[in-house]
Every structure is written in C-alpha cells, then in structure tokens.
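pipeline/complex-builder :: batch 7 item 3
reading input block
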Amino acid sequence: MSSAPALVARNVAKTVATGDTSLTILDDIELSLNAGDSLSIVGTSGSGKSTLLALLAGLDLPTRGHIELLGNNLASLDEDGRAAWRAARVGFVFQSFQLLAGLSALDNVLLPLELAGVRLSEARETARKLLAQVGLAHRTAHTPRQLSGGEQQRVAIARAFACRPAILFADEPTGNLDGATGAQIIDLLFALNAEQTTTLVLVTHDEALAGRCSRVARLASGRLHA
Amino acid sequence: MPDGRTSVSALQLAWRHGARQRGEWWVVLLALGVAVAAVTAVTQMNERVRAAMMHQGAQTLAADLRLDLRAPLGEARSATIEKTGVATAAVATFPSAVTRNDGVTLVSVKAVEPAYPLRGAVTLRRGPPGASTAEITHGPPAGTVWVAQRVLDELQLDIGDTLPLGDTGLRIGAVLVTEPDRAPGFVNIAPRVMMAADDMAATGLLGPGSRAHYSELIAGTPEQIAAARAQLEPTLTTGESLQTPRESNRALSRALDRADIFLDLAALVAVMLAGVAIALAARQQAQSRLDEVALFKTLGAARGLIGRMLAWQLVIVGILGIGLGLLTGQAAQAGLSLLVARAFDIDLPTASLTGLWPAPATGAVLLAGFAWPALAQARATPPARVLARALDTTTTRGRFVHVAAIASVVLLAAAATRDIALTAWVVAGTIAGTLVLAAGAFGLLWLVERLRRHLGAGAGPGVRLGLASLSRRRSASILQIVAFGIGLIMLFLLVIVRGDLLAGWRADIASDAPNRFLINITPDQQPKVADFLADNGIDADFHPIVRARLTTVNGQSIDDDPTLAESAGELAQRELNLSWAGQLKADNRITSGQWWQRDDRGKALISIATSVAERLDTGIGDTLSFDIAGEPITARVTSIREIDWSSLQANFYVLFPPGALDNLPATHITSFHLPPDHHGVLASLVRQFSNISVINIAAILDQITTLIERVSLAAELVFGFTLAAGLVVLLAAMQASLAERRREAALLRALGARSRWLRQATGVECLLIGACASILAAGVAQITAIVLATRMLDLDYSWRPLIWLIAVVTATLAIAAMAVLSLRPVLRQPAWTSLRESE
C-alpha cells in the first residue's frame, strides 16, 4: 500500500448560522489517511459525523482550515472544480441510498460512468457486472420503489464502485437497515473495497462496524479523537 | 373515546395539517387564482364590452328598442311602458312634396319629439358647405326644420329661409348632415326634412292615406328595456313589430356576432388553460400525499376521516384561490376597461356583481373535476405503504381522473361560450391535439433512443446526459411535451391565429366596399351612366329593378289571411324590388334548389332569400304571386339563397331569370366605391342625369368600421390576459418537474458533474421537449385556425410559414431557458446542501 496521504485535514472547523447565533458543528479537526487505508469516524447522533464526511469529500467547504484530498487542495477549487475533480475519483454510499426514483437499478449504476464519458455499451456492461456482483443480476430493470432497503443499498454500492474510485466515502451505510441485512451490506462493501484497493472513509455509530476499519477516530463535541 | 379524549374533526385536521403544508399548496393556489382571475377578467370584460357595443349599436336605431307602428302609440300603451322607467320619443316619417317657385321636390319628412335621438346624435351644419358641424342630441325646436343639403339646392333656399310645408311654413334652422338611424333602405330615398312633432298638426299633412310610418323609440337600462319589451310584446297587432339594433341592422348584427365569437373564444381558452394548470398541479399534489395518507391510516385514521380532511383542505385552498382570483381579475378588468374607455373615448357600463358568478363556479368545477379525483384516489393508499412502497399500487392517475377532467372541461366550455358548435370544435380539437402531442412525444423518445446508441464520446457529457434523461424519464417527458404543447396551442391560437382572424375580419369590410348607391336609372340612361362612371375610373355593376307588391303565397291571398299577413310583415306592407340576373353574385350562396339553367330564360321562376323563405314558410316548388303595376305574375320557387349583407352591395330578396320581366317597367340600380377625392364626380353626374338619386352609405360603413376597431382592441386586451394565463400553464408544467430535476442535479453534482454539463443536459433535454411540443402545437393551432376561419367565422385564411417558424423557435428557446434558469439554486450552493434539501 502506498504511504502517500490520500486525505489530509488540518485545523478544520465548520460553523453554521442559526438565527441570531452561530452553531459550531466541528472544531479543530486534524486528520491524515494514507492511500489504501480505511478509516471509520464514530460518534453519536448529532455529533457532526455526516458534516465532517461532507467536508472531507469536498461536498461542502469548511469555515476554517485546510483539506487535501488525493493531493488536491479542495479550497482552491470552486464548486465546479470540486465536482470535476470528484468524477471518477470519489465514490459515495449514503445512508438514505440517494438513488434516483425514476431510474432503474441499471440506470442508477450507469450515472457515474456516463459522467466519466464511458461509452454507453461499455458502461452498461460494467454496470451489469457490478449489479451481478452485488447479487442483483435479476433486478436490473427495477426502480428503487420496487426494491427493498437492502437491495437499494446494494445498488448504491454498485454505483459507488462503478468508476473504480480512488477513495470512497460511506455515510452510515447500514443506518436504515436491519442487523442481518446491514452485515451483508458491509461484507459487500469491504469485499469490493479490497478488490479495488480503494481508500475508505466510513462514518458510523456502530462500534462493531467501525472496528472493521484499519483506523478508528471518534467525534465528540465537534472534536476528533484518533 | 377512552381517556376522555374527544375525536378530532376533519376540518381541524385539515386546517392544522394544511397550515404546516401550505408551502406545498401554492402551485394549486396559483393555478386556481390565475384561472379564476382570467375568467373573471374575460367574462366581466365580455359583459362590459358587449354592453358598450350594444350601446354603440343602439345609435343606429337612435334607441335601444324601436316599436314600429301603423298609427301613433295610444295613451294606454304609452303609460304602460313609461312605468318601466324608460325614455321614449315618438317619430313619424312620411313622404311629402314641397313646392316653391315652379319647382316641386319630393322630400321625406321626419317629425320627432324633442327627446330624439335617444341614442347617438344628429349632425348639423349651420353654415355653407365646408363649415364646421355640431352633434346635437335633441330634435329641432318648434317652428324650425333641419333639412338635407339637397333640399336647399333643389329649392334654391338657404339657412334662415322659410320652407313651405303643407299648410304652414317653417324656418330652416340648419343643414341636416347625418341622422343616426337613417338606414340605406329604399324607402328613404328622398332628401330629409326633420321637424318637431308639435308642428305636425299645423302642416295638415297627416291624414287618411298619408302613408305615414310611425315608431316609438325606447331607451333605458337593460332591465328597463327587458321590462318594456315584456309589456309590449303581448300587445302587438298586425303590422307592428319590435326591433333591437341587432335585428334592424344586418351588417351590424353580423359584426356583433363575430365580436361575440372572438370574446367567447377568449373565455373558452382561459377555461382550457385553467384545466391544464389545475391538472398539473393536482397530480403533483396528490402524488405527494400518498405517504401522509398511509401514515394517518397507520395512526388510526379511518378512510372517511381522511377523505373529509382532504376535501376540507381542497375547500380551504379553493376559497383562498378563488378569492385571490376574483380580486386579481376585478383589478385587471378595471384596468383593461380604463384603457379601452380612454382609447376610444367611450363610457363602459359598470359590470354587474351578479355577472361574477362564472368565475367562482369555474374554480369550483375545476377543483372538483381536476383536483379532487386525484386526491380521492389517494384515500385508497394502504397503510402498508409506510413499511414498503412496493406494497402500494395506488395510482393518482387512471381512467376516472381523465374522464372527470374531460367532462369538467366540456361543461365549463359550454357554459362559457354558450355555443355548442364552438365548444365542440375546440374541445374536439384539443383532445385531438393532445393525442397528436402524445404520439409526437413517443416518436421523439424513439428517435432519441436511436440517437443515443450512435453517439460517441465526441457528443460531450452534457449532451449525452440530456439525451439520457429524456430517454429514461419517459412518462415525465411525455407529460411535459403534452402539457407544454397544450399551453402552446392556446398561446399560438391567441397570438398568431387571433391576429390573422382579426385582420381577415377587418379586410372583410374592405377599404373598397361600396359606399354609394345610384337609383332611378332608366334603361336608356344605364349605358350612359356606365360610361360616365367608367370614364371617371369607377367600376360599377348595374341591376334592374321592377317594383311589385306580394299578393299571394301558394294561391292564398295575403289580404284575406291575417296570419299570413302578420308573418309576411313588411314583405306585404310595402313594395318589393324584384330583379333578374343570369349569374349568381359572389355574396349569394344557394342553400336549396339550383340556380338557373340555360333553358330557364324567360320562365316564371324565382330564387328567394332565406329570410323570405323563413318568413313566408315557403320552399322549393312553392309559388308566389306579385302585382306589377296592375299586372299579376305568379312564379315558382326553384332555389333559396343565403345573402351576405355585410358585403353592402345591392341584393334582392326575389330574383327572376333573365327575360322573365322584360316587358315590365323597370329602373336600374348600381353600387360602387367612390374614392374620397371623387366627390365632384357625383355632382357632375346628378347635373347630367337629374332624375338619378344618390344614396351615401359611407356613414354606415364608418360606424361598422369603428365598431370593429373597438372590438378588436377589446379582444386584444382580453386575449392578453388569457395569454398571461397560458404562460402560467407553462410555468406550472416546468414546476411539475422542478423538484425531480433539482434532486437529480444535486446528485449528479455530488457524483462529479460540472455546472456546464448540468446546464447543457437540461438545455438539450428541454430544447428537444420544447421543439417537439412547439412544432406539434404550431401544426394543431394552424389546423384549428383554418377550421375556425372557414367554418365558424366565414373568413378567408392564409398560411404564414415565417410567423410559425418564429413562434416555434421562440417557444423552444424560452422553455429551455426557463429550465436552465431553474437550476441556478442548485448550481449556486455546495452539493451537500442540495443533497440534504432534496431528501
């Protein structure tokens, strides 16, 4: 595994305005993660885990501090620049799956491939293979409405790995699933992660899940404790 | 209830829950408000403009109602109608001869009460020709007459001189230039002498055999007129009749009929747009309620309670939307009315509050027909939906929704237009247009799918994304194309077709329409007069006239049959102008039977006008007998003709084939357009042919042209408001897909799509949707325009490809631009914020 940092965060803070006052969600976050490693960020509900993940992934900007993702200073890019940079490099798995309701499972997995400019026929082939890998070969034409929660998350995982990203961010991937289904999803996630040697950042409140990563950081009162 | 709790009412639930969800109802509220406002403005404007047009039209009668009599109105009936509060003025018209020095001039004397004219004004000139004129709204004072210039010319008199009239002499007070109710009929060919009714007795001219025509002019509010009419109609005897401005002036009647069609069209279009907007908003609203309904049921709410809650929410939204619409519509029509009144210097009567009922009724029917069916179906949502949406097969679409929507549109359209034929044509056209749009949408998606397969990486990610979105969102894409298309059909009809039809309507009263008639041309003078006119650049057709009296119908004498005499009316009361013709004129159309064949020459056959056929209840094969200067002639009806009186050309109720009336005394008549700079031509003609009478109908033409111009402006203003409603429909169609479009953009942004790609994708998708919708809409609108013009409005219609091209391009770009602009909130903020907002 490479020793070059895939992710670096220095003195990162996030404050939001709430009416007449301001709320500090994160404060003085320091973090470093090498390529190929896996990190879990653990905290109770409302501790700011999802907010931290959004900052690390470049989906939002910190109020203060410096974040480098795969050697790139995210603050130096505008929103478009961050989006362009994310394409084909970063994968996401969300707690609420974030599938497009009007699209089939296959079309949902196709999305990042199309954004990356892959030929349609090739993209479809890749998508079908991934769906087969996650056990949904026979459900490619079904829409999210026709899939269970676990099946939707499988589709989301297939989408996340479609472009073989360098780093993958997972926000409470089993938060909406039962124990058994969640375990299956996590096994799937880690299997694909190992296969593609992707750097993994996982946000969870589940200690057992957190223990499957090579490193665990705890978020409490807006501060990270490694 | 256990624990002493009381049950919550559906209204309480609706109010509390509705207040929390008020942000979701705004689309329905806006659509309803615009619909009600449009209908309010249109119906109120219709009412006020129609009333103003009738008021203008009343000037041609110098009253709102005219009672034609055979003798002066008796005191009993006079008192009866005065109780209704109307104003009255008695008029007596009779021919007389004025003798001065050795000359005799035939004049038409009109004796009027001081209140004449009740509508419009007479135009007087108190100086020599060329002096300024004045408009007067009362009759000549006692002891004074107002005379036509011809009277002064022929009798060599001047203003201030005494005109001998019967047993007395009256001072000439002014030259009578125009009078509002002088029709170009052949009864009034003699120059006019207008006198005060009080002076009639002194003249001694009225007595047995004086051939006087009496009428009572009546004016008042519509309610007063209706009451007077109701009092008078049962008292009418043989030879008496009531006339409104429309009934007495055929050309005006036709102009008003066309105006009604234009304004009814605006009302109908507003209703149709309302239906589309409400349907779009209601569908979206109903779909968003499914989870809520499932949750309520899970918490113990019965289906009936949920139904009542949804109904109450709809009622609350309806009250707010209708109230908003009424206020907006009233304000808009007040502003429009002010514009119309100022532009044409007329007073528009106040619209009645009772006239407002169509607008809230429209809103109620729209909610009941479009919103409720979809919401009602949401009541059937199973509670299991909260656990797994896959278990829920509830649909907010379905046959019931479509049938209810169509039935509501038909009902509203019929009520708005009060014209079944117009409603049927437009509704059928819209349904056909919708099907065409849907078929076009399917065709587009098929093409896009083919295109996607052949596109390589060179097409760019934005283009590929756009095509992919269009292809994947099949149902949404089809719905958008249909919704945009319907809105664009309406807009194209209003903006382009309306303009074309109005231009055609104006052109129908062509600038070269006949404005002069020449009568009393003897047969030997006819070729000389024709040469004279031709030498002066005037093209004129001549028609022979034989004066006759209608005596029998199918052998039954009119004099012996009071019923027949009553239905014959003025056909039997005065002499008719018979004529003959070899060719059927362009403004005549055979509706029954056939025109002359070659061997019909000289035969006793007649072609009669449809109005004669209806009045005498005669048809093909029936016979009419005439007395022509003491010689009887009986002829058989072989064809019935519809005459377009708006052509203002010489036309005849009864026509014979050539040769049938050859040996009978006849004169000729002609009509032509006299250019403004040719006035001296007629003076020269009259000097050369002193027996020929000239009738100037330019004033009538001016009235009709002015009326058309005013109606056009009113129609344009009304259509402008309906146009705004059409734009709201387009916005509603855009809004229907906005949430999904933004959510997709947020996710794509998170996955790495750049702003430029998202704009390109949305632009490509909406360009294709817009182009498909607008091209199809242009085609449907064009076909509808042709049908309306040729079948309903009897106008010529020509294609204008360039204007359609501009319309299509403009609509397409506008739709694409609106869609791209709607993404701005997503593109301006971080991807994470958009993702959280979309959850």
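note: The first strand of chain A starts at residue 5 and ends at 18.
queue -> next item
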